[in-house]
Amino acid sequence: MGTHMARNLHRAGLLAAVWNRTAEKARSLAEELGVAAPATLAELAAGVEAVVLCVSADNDVLEVVRALAPGLASGSLVIDCSTVAADTARKAAELLGKQGVEFLDCPVSGGVEGAREGTLAVMAGGTSQAFERARQVLEAMGRTVTHFGPTGSGQAAKATNQIMCAGIIEAVSEAMAFARAQGLPLEKLIDTLGKGAGSSWYFVHRAPNMARGSYPAGFRVRLHAKDLAICRDMAARFGVALPVVERMLSEYAELISRGYGDEDISAAFRLKAELFEPARGRAPSA
Question: What's this model's pTM, rounded to 2 decimal places?
Answer without folding.
Answer: 0.92
